[in-house]
Amino acid sequence: MLKKQDIPAQDWEDWQWQFRYRLRTLSQLDEALNLTDDEKESLTKTTRFAVGITPYFASIMDPHDPNCPIRRQAIPLGAEFISHSNDLPDPLAEETRSPVPYIVHRYPDRVLLIVTETCHMYCRHCTRKRRVGFHEEAITSEQLAIALKYIEEHTEVRDVLVSGGDPLSLGDERLERILAEVHRIKHVEVIRIGSRAPITNPFRITQQFVEMLRQFHPIWMNVQFNHPNEITAESTKACERLADAGIPLGNQTVLLRGINDTVEIQKHLVQKLVQIRVRPYYLYQCDLVQGLEHFRTPVSRGIEIMEHLRGHTSGFAIPTFVIDAPGGGGKIPVTPHYVLYQTPEKIVLRNYEGKVFTYPEPIK
Ligand SMILES: *Cc1c(COP(=O)(O)O)cnc(C)c1O
Ligand code: SF4
Questions:
Q1: Would you give per-residue pLDDT tens digits along the chain (364 residues)?
Q2: Would you say the CB of residue 114 lies under 6 angstroms from ligand 1?
Q3: Whose CA is nearest to atom 1 of ligand 2?
Q4: Closest among 204, 173, 170 to 18, alpha carbons compared
Q5: Domain at 95-333, CATH from 3.30.710.10, 3.90.190.20, 3.20.20.70, 3.40.50.1970
Q6: CA 64 to centroid of ligand 2, rounded, Å
Q7: Probe ligand 2: pick from 126, 168, 254, max atoms within 8 Å of CB?
Q8: So where are the chain's domains?
Q9: Which sequence positions are flagged as catalytic?
Q10: Quick one: which of 5, 94, 197, 285 is 20 to 30 A from 348 by CA?
């Protein structure tokens, strides 16, 4: 079993070692954790969605607690195999918004560029499950050329979001080539990278890697911390390195039943995130992906969480709660109601404590 204390530090802290030795089978995981019958059975099924967990991410699980929030994100349960009437094969209609393979163009001025379908760790709640993890393939040079041509021809695209899968499962050289190509396009003003590597394989963020990224500024990065237990010495170091290289970090949390769906956990999470210079960006309502029903929370829970953040903690620690609209409508913010009513003369509001205030409109 790959336990930290048995592994030489130069291996344990080598991201490629972590990636190569991802735990993928029942027998490997059974050695690492005290698995429940449900987990064992789920791991024997020919799963529709890959299992892969870095030894590091497994090391931050509680081996004895089946409800461990880290474990629940990584190890399948039987519930994952049950279909529900609201499930959609492609809830965000990404395939219909894909003008060429590997590009999703849903908003006027920005596109998503999918560079790989491989991840350091396969999240059970992945929204892109339909295509992630099957073949562990990355975009080919020919496919990349077609995607880049699309971006070049669409001069309205000023923001390119490099995502996947996890783009940081590619090596530095490959990523550097991709980023250089995107950076070269004149009308692209900013590149964003979406990655879970700082959380699932923090050793990926080497000094050499951040030096490479710096060539392509302005580079922003969005990560996905879902629980305060993911903020470890290792993930902290990864985020600090990125922030020190001038890369603004945003966090996109998925609201997950039984994992992080309380006010206390979310408040603790956002407060810890700002300490490591990661700004909470989005809190996502769980998408209608097949096998995610058991993770879904009522929308009212998200609203309640927002109600208990705004005013109660630093404004820059507060994410926007969004529903990514089924059918491809994009992210729609959902907030508690602060406007009680509005007339041409005034607006009547309540504050975070429930006190009521009137703001008069300009006199015409
Ligand atoms: C989320 C997303 C974006 C980025 O949206 P922002 O609100 O700008 O962060 C862009 N394209 C697609 C397809 C997305 O899903
Ligand atoms: S890292 Fe992202 S793409 Fe990969 S499994 Fe998790 S949510 Fe899906």
A1: 578 889 999 999 999 999 999 999 999 999 999 999 999 999 998 667 899 999 999 999 999 999 999 999 999 999 999 989 999 888 888 988 999 999 999 999 999 999 999 999 999 999 998 889 888 889 999 999 999 999 999 999 999 999 999 999 999 999 999 999 999 999 999 999 999 999 999 999 999 999 999 999 999 999 999 999 999 999 999 999 999 999 999 999 999 999 999 999 999 999 999 999 999 999 999 999 989 999 999 999 999 999 999 999 999 999 999 999 999 999 999 999 999 999 999 999 999 999 999 999 999 8
A2: no
A3: 196
A4: 204
A5: 3.20.20.70
A6: 25
A7: 126
A8: 95-333, 338-364
A9: 106-107, 110, 119, 123, 126, 128, 287, 324, 331
A10: 285
Ligand 1 in contact with 331 (CB < 6 A)? yes
Whole-number Å distance between alpha carbons of 180 and 201: 24
Nearest ligand (C-alpha, residue 96): 1
CA distance 199 to 249: 13
- Side chain identity at residue 291, one-letter code: G
Question: Is the beta carbon of 220 within 6 A of some atom in ligand 1?
Answer: no
DSSP state of 134: S
pTM beyond 0.85, yes or no: yes
Q: What backbone torsions phi and psi does residue 100 show, to the nearest 5 degrees?
A: -135, 155
The identity of residue 89, as a single letter, is: P
Task: Tell me the CA–centroid distance for residue 199 and ligand 2, in Å.
Answer: 11
The ligand with the least distance to the CA atom of 127 is 2
Q: Strand pairing partners for 116?
A: 138
Q: Which ligand is nearest to the CA of 160?
A: 1
